[in-house]
Amino acid sequence: MKQFFKFVLATIVGVIISGIIIGVVGAVLVIGLIASAGSDKTVDVSPNSILYMSLKNQITERTPNNPLAGLDFLGLNEDKSIGLNDILADIKKAKTDDNIKGIYLDESYMTAGQATTEEIRNALIDFKKSGKFIVAYAEVYTQGFYYLASVADKVYINPKGIFEFHGFSSQTTFLKGALDKLGIEAQIIKVGTFKSAVEPLFLTKMSDANKLQVTSYLGSLYNHFLTGISKSRGLNRDSLFTYADNMRIQFPEDAYKLKLVDGLKYKDEILNDLKRRTGTDLKDDLKSVDLRDYAKSKNDDSDDKEDDSSSKNRIAIVYASGDITGGDGDDNSIGSETISKALRKARLDDKVKAVVLRVNSPGGSSLASDVIWREVKLIHEKKPIIVSMGDYAASGGYYISCAADSIIAQPNTITGSIGIFAVLPNMQKLFNDKLGVTFDGVKTGKYADLGDISRPLSPDERLILQNSVNRGYDEFTKAVAEGRGKTQAYINSIGQGRVWTGEQALKIGLVDRLGNINDAITSAAKKAKIKTYNIVSYPEQKSFFNKVGSGLSAEVQTRMVKNELGENYRVYQQIKGITQMMRTPQARLPYDLVIK
């Protein structure tokens, strides 16, 4: 027995020591990887190089602070996303970089939103003013990528490739049938004839009002798409409409004959063309620098670098991207606490002369939106604040924008959707009929169990919730009316949950002008009456070590689910979003708004 305890004790000690050694080695490995991956090594750009732009990975508002991005470690090898901020900065820098002779666009499946694509497209148009070339090539042209590529000097496609040009469509997934089979009733309380976010829960097809608004904003987006291509390719807009409407382009040679592309080429032919353009011998390798690496190159004469913390004149860019929630949020959501803190910091910092609020959000919690709106209003009372809208700035996303001095949107930004709704599930049939579960209890007041999901709402309870939602809508429209200098009655007439494009919103007074984030920065500087300034960004991005202790595992899990479900991840998100909508009144867009 004595020997047995010695053996057990030795085993335990061995396991402990082994664990410590493995932990130390693992920590050293992680630190080593971070040191090697995160070290700010300067990238040298050789003369006669091209800037290689492949945009197949997710484009976020800011490049994530992840030193292990691209490394096959802890499941992070899939995190190759790049920020719009870096893309725009790189294109601007390449314009005046003597070592960069041109840009090579090489992509098929670009997933960026329409306003994000617009920002990049406009930056490429500006780049062309330098006299440098842009060449685009793809085996498959989606409509989104072709819209971007159409500004190139030459657009080429693989002879056996695919060219999509058939118009826009938008489809909604309805869940009512599934909920009925499960015995779940979605009890809807809303304000807004066009507030369609809840329709998938209680309808099996689009309402007439929703179909009207989708037809309107989809037509606006499509018109802008065709007009942009018409201008960049020198083609008649009505002819382009006819080509798409009649499926005139089914094969690459069709696109060539109709002058949407400049040639049918294989990849080796493209590379040889680029070598000739850069004066490179056909036997030598083409000199190129990737978009990600170019950000680390020496020639960085950008006016808006964030490297001078002592500057007396600053413009703060506060990034608000994702669903609006209460609390801290994360890299993919707008936490009211985090964004409010960032706005407050910018307001109280005397060195910050103006603020640009970059909004890319479909909305979310109406309460959290109001918390952020308050901080925007306080800044407006003290110093200039300009809103720059991204792909979405709708519902709660518009709520947090409306108190600014002015609002700048892209023509294809999705905005408006001024409305409020709440959802409370009635799961009585699921519990009673499907699961055989029943409930009983006591209460001290008539409404003590208001919100109980095991039974339907009474008429009185529904009225109480409707009054709450009505009040939220009244406060929403009042805030917009005050911020936009309109009457509340007028805001109600263009509100009702209706979705507008940026182009439409300009006409009805919901935005002040069309433009990009740089236009917003320039406007902020002008209003602050400053000519020289530095840019500071808020909120501070979480470091890798912060993520290890908090949200890293959830981030890895999300990527795994995305990889497994592919395009069906959208449906998964929709179902998951139902639980979020059942917590508090919501000011959000239809959460499955997809335009193809």
Automatic annotation (TrEMBL):
Name the coiled-coil region(s): none
> Which chain regions cross the lipid bilayer?
7-35
Top-rank taxon: Bacteria
Tell me which residues this entry annotates as catalytic: K195 (proton donor/acceptor), S395 (nucleophile)
Protein name as it appears in the record: Protease-4
| Peptidase S49 domain ranges (all copies) | 127-277, 380-531
Looking up SUPFAM superfamilies in the UniProt record yields:
ClpP/crotonase (SSF52096)
- Keyword Hydrolase listed? The answer is yes
Query: What compartments host this protein?
Result: Membrane
Checking Pfam families in the record gives:
Peptidase_S49 (PF01343)
**GO CC annotation terms, alphabetical:** membrane
Provide a GO biological process annotation: signal peptide processing
Name the family: Belongs to the peptidase S49 family.
Matches recorded under InterPro entries: ClpP/crotonase-like_dom_sf, Pept_S49_pIV, Pept_S49_SppA, Peptidase_S49, S49_SppA_67K_type_N, S49_SppA_C
The UniProt GO MF terms for this protein read:
serine-type peptidase activity
Any idea which UniProt keywords this protein has? Hydrolase, Membrane, Protease, Serine protease, Transmembrane, Transmembrane helix
